[in-house]
Structures are given as structure tokens and as C-alpha cells.
TrEMBL record:
<dbReference type="GO" id="GO:0008922">
    <property type="term" value="F:long-chain fatty acid [acyl-carrier-protein] ligase activity"/>
</dbReference>
<dbReference type="InterPro" id="IPR000873">
    <property type="entry name" value="AMP-dep_synth/lig_dom"/>
</dbReference>
<dbReference type="Pfam" id="PF00501">
    <property type="entry name" value="AMP-binding"/>
</dbReference>
<feature type="domain" description="AMP-dependent synthetase/ligase">
    <location>
        <begin position="19"/>
        <end position="449"/>
    </location>
</feature>
<dbReference type="Pfam" id="PF23562">
    <property type="entry name" value="AMP-binding_C_3"/>
</dbReference>
<dbReference type="InterPro" id="IPR052987">
    <property type="entry name" value="Chloroplast_AMP-bd_Enzymes"/>
</dbReference>
<dbReference type="InterPro" id="IPR042099">
    <property type="entry name" value="ANL_N_sf"/>
</dbReference>
<dbReference type="GO" id="GO:0030497">
    <property type="term" value="P:fatty acid elongation"/>
</dbReference>
<protein>
    <submittedName>
        <fullName>AMP-binding protein</fullName>
    </submittedName>
</protein>
Length: 626
């Protein structure tokens, strides 16, 4: 650990993280929001002062150690100040986006026993009325500067109220509850995951063993800040004195160029969208230039595959023989000059579009597709993939810079144990064989709030947490997640199919934007496709500026359907471990993309399979009956 880093192992509360920052690098900039009006820049010293004032303000309103405060808001410096202010007095926050459905928000406020709420703005408050008045909520705080209703306070008023008061020296310990993070509730009522100060402090300390960041290094933030993945990563970077810069989907391209970040954490869908943007630019180049770009990428692909074999970083061949390494080294030597020239002529421009200063990007919230791993490695942007769940605070495994096995999900954090067991017997399975992933370690949640039955089902008496994921572990501890136990599609021939790996290869096609695999209790697999209109337009297969819903008849003409059939056959048959059961028997085009707004994606861009199946049930039935 470097001398400027926060000692998370010795700490008992997250408040000490900010105390350390204010003392060690008070003038370093902690928070930058270029999109607020006016733009926001707050130093570590000022952030610490505002956290203390916010917490003391809540305490002066009667909020006590152990109370729950609902925090219903989205990414901003004020979210962080509110979060840490609540935790600083030993209260716990129940977090959710202000964009969530009102019934879900009201349920969270009630279920969490929140005695106060902190909301994004007046509009969010009004969204919760009139039912809010029937709940035992004693205090209302707006994160905005709008005029607060009678008896409520806006952000500045609360800071002023707490400015001259103290935090009351609350008896916070590592097992003190810090937050309730409510699961998205795609299949049932959302459950409140109970995470402690110790859960988060363990994650910070463990992350420090993976990466050492420098004071003032820039980190771009786009994921929902209330989500455990983004939140834990933020706590980690603040332990190192970094500057967090807030962005969003509308401004990310500009923010990458303007702020030139060193690090960024996101989900596979975001890395896919950046990749798609680059591919679109490539398709707009003259034919001769496209051929040159394809030449470089084709040869660099062979180069990185050979390089992985030499370094023992190929997930399909983690322990290559001397002969395999020698042959791969020979291939590397022959392609090195072409790869370097590609870097100079093509890849450097791609890097510049992302700001040109990335040291690492971190991908989690789902396994990242192989073609994205290849693309980013070729252009020289290193991805550190990881694994975890909200219930594990969330990180349990992460790929290390010195063992970055693409296609894998990393090695365990210190003190984290992994078991792979048979789904039926719960007996351990042999190394590198698929089974159910169980986790035990200091990051595992206390349980689900007021839900002992669900807690007992998730965590056994020995402390093993059932992730619900399928995976395998190498002899060296490398984890590879292969699917979700409940997502497994069982065909009528009894074959079990994991949808994620097949979906990942399907979206390699330039003509496909999003997909979802279906086929439970069918003879063959089916695929729901959201087509990539810009690629179809570039190929002159559809008119320019087409609207998806309007061109479905055109997409179903034989010429285009044959194109998609060929694309799917090629990508799936080239998949390692291809089986005849993986073949897509039928497919259908959807009239709209999967988005957060239409309910088909979670806030972290994961597809909500049950929602999509329900919405497009008619299309699915028709697809399999033809």
C-alpha cells in the first residue's frame, strides 16, 4: 500500500476514509460534475466538510444511530455527500434511483423503516405523494436548491443547519449496517441487501492489493452510483485521492475526449456501445481503407491469440505445453511488425477517441463478450474483468494486471473462498468442471433485511453464499462464469443450454445490436434480434434514417433473412466448444431496442429476460410455430 493510501484494514467506519483524505490530500479535487449548473469542482477538504455538515444536520433533526434514511436520487456529487453524511452518524441509507417506479420506491421507503427521505428534487417528492404522508417519515430533504415544502429542507439549508454542529461520536464498528441496496425485483418484491461498513472497507482494502492509483488521477463515472458495483469502486478510488468525473450516456463521447480519464468502470453493454461507435466509423470509410483496417485487425487478432498462449493467458488453454508456446512465439514474431504498424495507423486513433490516457478499464456486471475482449486488447486498452453480486458488496474476483486472462472472471480477493458444487448433490466437482458457484468471505452481506427465510436460503450455516451462477475454477483459482443457473434453457432433447455465451457470439455480427436467446421446452433454439440499422443502411439494404418499427416487413424479406441466417451460422459455428444444439433454429426481429426506459434493461444494462419474454410472447409463439 502506498503512503498516501487509506488503511481500510484498520478502519472501523467509512467516515475515516474522508477524514484521511481531508488530512492527506485536502486540496486534491475529489468530485467534478461538468454538467451541473454551474459546473461543480469540490476538493477532498471541502467534501469532508460537507459530509460532516450533512450528517450533523440530519442529527440535529433527530436522526439517530441505527436509523434508516431512504436516499432516492441519481449520480451527482450531492448523492455522495448525502450517502456519506448519513453513514457518518451511524444511520444506514436505503438507496434507489429516482427514475424507479413509484410503487417500488414507496415499497422501499416503507419496508426499510426509513424515518427520513433524501430525494433528488421536488419532482421526485411529488412522485411519491400522497401515499408518502401515510408512512412514518419524519423528515424530508431535497438534494436540489429548490424551495422546500413547509417542514422540509433543501440541500443548502441542511448544510447550514449542520455547519456548526458535530456528528455526536457515533459508535460505528465494522459490523454496523451501512446500507440497504434493494435488488431490482424482476421476478418478485425487491429484497433489501444488508451491507456493513466492514463489507465496504474490506472491498477497499482488497482492491488496493490489485491496483495502486495516484493522487489526482481521473476516473470517469457513469454507472448508477447507488448500485454496489459503482459505489464500492468509488469508495476505493477516493481512498487513493483520485478525481471522480460524472458523465452520462448523452455526453460520454465528449467527456472521454475532454477529460482524458485514466480509469473507468462499466458494464459490458457500455463497452459494446463504444465498440459499435468505432465500427460505424470504420464502415463509413472508403472501401480501400476498410480493407486496410480489416487487414490490420485480422493479423492483430492472430498476434494477440499467440501472445496469450505464450503468456499462459488463454482461457481455453491456461497451461500450454512448451511446444505450443514455442509455436505461438514464432507466430508472434512474424506478426509483430504488422501489429505495430496497425497500432500507429489505426489503433492509436481509437485510443485517442477514448481520451488516450486509459491505464485500465474495469468491466463487471456480467461477462464481457470475447470479441470485445479481442478488440480492446488489439487497440491497447486493457480490461480488468471481475465478478460479484450486490450480496457480496459486490466484488469477489478480479483479473490482475499480471494475470489478465481474457474470457475469465478473475482470481479471488484475499480471504475469499470459492466452491464449485454439483447443482443436485451440492458436492464439490473436479477442477475446471462446471457447477454452481458458492462464495465465502468478508464481503458477504449480513442478510436480506427483515427476510430471514430468503437469507437462510442464500447463505448456509457454514457461511457459503449461493450465487445462483454456474462456473468453473482452474487449478490456479481462475474463475470462469458460464451462465446463470435459472437462465439455463432446457430443450426437449434434454440438452441444457447457457444463453450468455451464445448471445455474446451473435452480437459479433455487425448487423446485430442486441439479442436474447429463447427455447425453453422447444426442439431448437430461437433468437430475438434487435438489428443494427446503421450497418444495414451502410450496406444499402434499407433506406437511410429508417425507423425500426416501420421496416419490419422489409427485414423479413428473403434477402435480409438469408443474410442474418448466414451471420448467425458463421458466428455460432466458430464458437469454441460448438455443439449442434447451439444452432439457432428460428429467429425474429423486434420492433424496439431493449432500454432502461421500456423496462427491458436493468439500471446496469442487464437484460430482464422475464420482462422481454412476457412482452414478446406472441412473437416467440409465432416464431416456434412456423
Amino acid at each position: 500500500m502506498s503512503n498516501h493510501s487509506f488503511n481500510a484494514q484498520a478502519a472501523t467506519s467509512l467516515w475515516q476514509l474522508w477524514q484521511h483524505g481531508a488530512k492527506t490530500f485536502p486540496d486534491a479535487i475529489a468530485l467534478v460534475d461538468p454538467h451541473s449548473k454551474p459546473p461543480t469542482r469540490i476538493s477532498y477538504g471541502d467534501t469532508f466538510e460537507q459530509i460532516n455538515a450533512f450528517g450533523a444536520g440530519l442529527r440535529s433533526l433527530g436522526i439517530q444511530f441505527g436509523d434508516k434514511v431512504a436516499l432516492i436520487a441519481d449520480n451527482s456529487p450531492r448523492w455522495l455527500i448525502a450517502d456519506q453524511g448519513i453513514l457518518a452518524i451511524g444511520a444506514a441509507d436505503a438507496t434507489r434511483s429516482s427514475q424507479a417506479e413509484r410503487n417500488e420506491l414507496l415499497y422501499i421507503i416503507e419496508h426499510s423503516d426509513s424515518v427520513a427521505i433524501v430525494v433528488e428534487n421536488l419532482a421526485t417528492l411529488r412522485k411519491l405523494e400522497p401515499e408518502l404522508h401515510n408512512l412514518p417519515v419524519k423528515q424530508i430533504i431535497l438534494l436540489s436548491d429548490e424551495d422546500a415544502p413547509e417542514g422540509a429542507y433543501n440541500f443548502q439549508q441542511l448544510l447550514a443547519k449542520g455547519a456548526s454542529k458535530d456528528l455526536g461520536n457515533p459508535p460505528i464498528q465494522r459490523d454496523t449496517l451501512a446500507t440497504l441496496i434493494y435488488t431490482s425485483g424482476t421476478t418478485a418484491r425487491p429484497k433489501g441487501v444488508m451491507l456493513t461498513h466492514g463489507n465496504f472497507l474490506y472491498e477497499v482494502a482488497a482492491a488496493q492489493t490489485v491496483l495502486q492509483l495516484q493522487i489526482n488521477e481521473k476516473v470517469l463515472s457513469i454507472l448508477p452510483t447507488w448500485h454496489s458495483y459503482e459505489r464500492t469502486f468509488e469508495y476505493f478510488i477516493f481512498s487513493q485521492g483520485c478525481t471522480q468525473i460524472y458523465t452520462n450516456l448523452r455526453t460520454i463521447k465528449k467527456d472521454l475526449k475532454d477529460h482524458k480519464p485514466n480509469y473507468m468502470v462499466a458494464v459490458p453493454r457500455l463497452w459494446e456501445s463504444i465498440y459499435e461507435g468505432v465500427q460505424k466509423q470504420f464502415r463509413e470509410q472508403p472501401a480501400s481503407k476498410q480493407r486496410l483496417i480489416n487487414f490490420f485487425f485480422s493479423n492483430s487478432q492472430k498476434y494477440i491469440v499467440a501472445k496469450r498462449t505464450v503468456q499462459g493467458l488463454d482461457v481455453e488453454n491456461i497451461n500450454p505445453t512448451f511446444g505450443e508456446k514455442f509455436k505461438a512465439a514464432f507466430v508472434m514474431a512474424g506478426l509483430w511488425a504488422i501489429h505495430r504498424l496497425g497500432h500507429k495507423l489505426v489503433y492509436q486513433k481509437v485510443r485517442e477517441a477514448t481520451g488516450g490516457n486509459f491505464k485500465y478499464i474495469v468491466s463487471g456486471g456480467g461477462s464481457i463478450a470475447e470479441h470485445l475482449e479481442d478488440f480492446y486488447e488489439i487497440v491497447g486498452i486493457e480490461i480488468l474483468g471481475g465478478y460479484g453480486l450486490t450480496e457480496t458488496s459486490p466484488i469477489t474476483h478480479v483479473r490482475r494486471p499480471n494475470r489478465n486472462i481474457r474470457g475469465g472472471d478473475g482470481q479471488p480477493f484475499p480471504q475469499t473462498e470459492t466452491r464449485i458444487v454439483d447443482l443436485a448433490t451440492r458436492e464439490n466437482v473436479p477442477t475446471w468442471q462446471q457447477g454452481l458457484v458458492l462464495i465465502r468471505g468478508p464481503q458477504v452481506m449480513q442478510g436480506y433485511y427483515k427476510n430471514p427465510e430468503a437469507t437462510a436460503k442464500a447463505i448456509d450455516p457454514q457461511g457459503w453464499f449461493d450465487t445462483g451462477d454456474l462456473g468453473k475454477v482452474s487449478a490456479w483459482g481462475d474463475l470462469v462464469i458460464t451462465g446463470r443457473a435459472k437462465d439455463t434453457i432446457v430443450l426437449t432433447n434434454g440438452e441444457n443450454i447457457e444463453p450468455q455465451p451464445i448471445e455474446d457470439v451473435c452480437i459479433r455480427s455487425a448487423y446485430i445490436d442486441q439479442v436474447m436467446l429463447v427455447g425453453q421446452d422447444q426442439k431448437q433454439l430461437g433468437l430475438l434480434i434487435v438489428p443494427n440499422l446503421s450497418a444495414l443502411e451502410a450496406a444499402k439494404l434499407i433506406p437511410a434514417d429508417s425507423e425500426l418499427a416501420n421496416i419490419l416487413p422489409l427485414l423479413n424479406e428473403p434477402k435480409i433473412r438469408n443474410l442474418y441466417r448466414d451471420e448467425l451460422n458463421r458466428e455460432i459455428q466458430n464458437r469454441p466448444g460448438y455443439s449442434i444444439n447451439d444452432r439457432i433454429g428460428v429467429f425474429a426481429f423486434l420492433p424496439a431496442p431493449f432500454t432502461i426506459d421500456n423496462g427491458c434493461l436493468t439500471q446496469t444494462f442487464k437484460i430482464r429476460r422475464n420482462i422481454i419474454c412476457d412482452r414478446y410472447q406472441d412473437i416467440i409463439v409465432k416464431m416456434f410455430s412456423n
